[in-house]
Amino acid sequence: AALYNVDGWGGPYFAVNAAGNISVRSHGSATLPHQEIDLLKIVKKASDPKSIGGLGLQLPLIVRFPDVLKNRLECLQSAFDYAIQSEGYGSHYQGVYPVKCNQDRFVVEDIVKFGSPFRFGLEAGSKPELLLAMSCLCKGNPDALLICNGFKDAEYISLALVANKLALNTVIVLEQEEEVDLIIELSKKLCIKPVIGLRAKLRTKHSGHFGGTSGEKGKFGLTTAQILRVVKKLDLAGMLDCLQLLHFHIGSQIPSTALLADGVGEAAQIYCELVRLGANMRVIDIGGGLGIDYDGSKSCDSDISVGYSLEEYASAVVHAIQCVCDRRSVKNPVICSESGRAIVSHQSILVFEAVGTSTTVGGVSSAFSAPYVAGDLSEDYRFLSEAAFGGDYESCLAYTEELKERCVEQFKQGAVCMEQLAAVDGLCELVRKAVGAGEPVRRYHVNLSVFTSIPDAWGIEQVFPIIPIHRLDEKPSVRGILSDLTCDSDGKIDKFINGESSLPLHEVEGGSYYLGMFLGGAYEEALGGFHNLFGGPSVVRVSQSDGPHSFAVTRAVPGPSCGDVLRVMQHQPELMFETLKHRAYEYVSHDNAAVLASGLARTFDRMPYLVPLSSFGDADAAAAP
Ligand code: PLP
């Protein structure tokens, strides 16, 4: 646990149990006590063809824990409740979940259900998101907010007005000045009185990677001059009382409470100005930005950590708003936040498997054979042996690098054969080992697509805690980087927490070696695409059930098949199968064609990861043109 800093980034949800496996702590309920669930047991159960309805789900696998999600929501709410009570703040906190962070139906439905006792709502940023938020909130608390953000056309605004008509507590937030004209026109046409918010562009700037949307030159929101024009337009239309909410978003992963308080204080001044200008203000929506400590370092100088707790975050927000409003004698507004990352990151774990390893110099020891170290090379051999025996290890290592480069050049010119090149590789590795330079970093091939399942690792070099989920009571003997199965050299992970460029790993000797990516429940699933036509992972939902250490798989969904992902790119798998089957009967004997065709049918039906070629198992297949 200490080697991978599990307590730092994983507490209070993840720990290492006595068996050396990752355990997930569910936080119990009135009827069920707190329990530890062994993650390896879940993976074994989900992939066992004899279990959960014979599904035998393939990896990679997303394991979701609704109990963890519930606990995150409750902790966020109680952090604000506590801050409000201890500061004597004159209103309440009522959050919304931005569905873009993870639009999975069950995640959104759970949030609406778990958040219903405290009026937790949803935020949408597009028409499809609005549709899903509307239908989910029909089953939620009637006071829960439905915040409509994002760029809006007439259809989006009409839909938001319809939501209002359906008695959903809808706020249309202006992101662009022109939207106000559309809202005035459409609300009059449809005879629906809207509740309007506006997004302000703050001057406060968050300088980290996730702060690109903040500051005066940020992409979203209204400038001071635009806010004043919007107020005037609404006033002229007799709709200034509709303006009730001020929204801003400093950026995701806000590093410190100092920056947060600065931004919230500026926004509170704008809020008070809107009150002065005659708007019917009720809510201040502080956007997202509540960060996650991905490496457990509790640092405010890093994009992947934050220097505050949930309680400190809530207290900084409440204090900053109250200071400004009390000074200006403005009634304390309802505080809304759009925390996404902080709510959904912990609830899912992506589990994948190492399916093989290779070193940078493959199969070296067996390739080293003295007869090939002949001629010129025997001189080098002598030099290296002498330097090694004399303890001059640095010269040895430098010399081997130089020797290797020289031999590669000679190989390119045809002066050195393949066996000699392999022998030099072997010699270099022996020297590295002899001088104690350690084994080179290995490449672990893992059965997933980084582009599909961890897109931020590729796109913005984000670092997530990735560790083996078992054998944690065994000292890892090698270091490795992870390479995915896509045919793309960017499909790798070579940046890990603590600034490491490789991960301590165990030997994969027979058996299965499972790794987990933690804290990726926000954004990663929502962003992932179909690069190399690898589909998404299988998913299971796991809840605690009666008895110690026991759990129930309450839902299991296989990942998309090869046919499914081909359909995404407009291919027609049924037709493709017919074409290939037809060709099989043309080129292969009748019996073998039938075997081939059924193998092909299975391949279309299986997940795109690791389709075993042995399914074809037919001599004709290899010989077919
Ligand atoms: N609200 C808005 C407007 C956003 O742009 C975002 C994401 O960047 C969020 C909320 C969610 O932010 P976070 O995941 O940092 O809580």
From TrEMBL:
N6-(pyridoxal phosphate)lysine carried by residues = K100
PROSITE patterns according to UniProt? ODR_DC_2_1, ODR_DC_2_2
Q: What are the BP-aspect GO terms?
A: L-arginine catabolic process; putrescine biosynthetic process; response to cold; spermidine biosynthetic process
Per its UniProt record, the required cofactor names are:
Mg(2+); pyridoxal 5'-phosphate
Q: Which UniProt keywords apply?
A: Decarboxylase, Lyase, Magnesium, Putrescine biosynthesis, Pyridoxal phosphate, Spermidine biosynthesis
This protein's pathway:
Amine and polyamine biosynthesis; agmatine biosynthesis; agmatine from L-arginine: step 1/1
Spell out the catalytic residues.
Answer: C487
Supply the Pfam families for this chain: Orn_Arg_deC_N (PF02784)
For this UniProt entry, the molecular function terms from Gene Ontology, in alphabetical order, are: arginine decarboxylase activity
Boundaries of every Orn/DAP/Arg decarboxylase 2 N-terminal domain copy: 92-345
What does it catalyze? L-arginine + H(+) = agmatine + CO2
Q: What is its EC number?
A: 4.1.1.19
Q: Which family does it belong to?
A: Belongs to the Orn/Lys/Arg decarboxylase class-II family. SpeA subfamily.
This one is known as: Arginine decarboxylase
